[in-house]
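In response to reviewer comment 3 from the previous cycle, which asked for concrete evidence that the modeling workflow produces usable outputs, we include below a single protein chain processed end to end. The sequence was submitted unchanged, and the resulting structure tokens are shown without manual editing.
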Amino acid sequence: MLAAVIFDFDGIIVDSEPLHFRAFNEVLNALDLRITWDAYCETYIGFDDRDAFRTLFKAAEKKISAYELKELIRQKAAVFESYIQKGEAAPLPGAVELIKSIPVRLPVALCSGALKQDILPVLEKLGIDNAFSAIVTAEDTDRSKPDPAPYRLVLDKLDIDNPAAALAIEDTPAGIMSAKAAGLKVLAVTNSYDREYLHAADAITDSLERVNRTLLEDLVL
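The workflow returned the following structure tokens.
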């Protein structure tokens, strides 16, 4: 029996990955650094901002102090927030409708590598800010996806002892790896990657418009 449905945020609920990409580069321009879209999709999608900046600086063979890291995260969050205030974070097809269709008795949670301040204003704009029994964001764990820590924390918050009874909805290989390593079943959506990159999921769909509660329940049988 399905015990919970856990949604990723970026690339599942809202089409925000291009906004994160732009925000990273707006901050990095002052440092003469840049991420290409291909590199972003191959390496950085699924990371929280902390691990993304750390990985980027390591790849560039540059050192970054704890203070500099904190400041870059702050700057990037401010840029991203400006995009949100302009209404640039559009909901992805079927996501809000699916969340609203899930009955109250079935817990719905959010597991994201984004900052809470990036997420909550969007959820409020979409009218689903009260839909989640638990929310885990970048601030809540020391390790980001693909590490299982974020999903393990969600399971703890929901008091779920059997991870296989919970279903994660993800759009990236890193997210799938995180959820599977924590023992969850995974439904992948091809919003950010083609099917060939999402093969580790238990099921794949091209759109949440094609998903209903019955299908979600069938995936944990």
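Residues 66-85 form the longest helix (20 residues). We consider this sufficient to address the reviewer's concern, and the full set will be provided in the supplementary archive.
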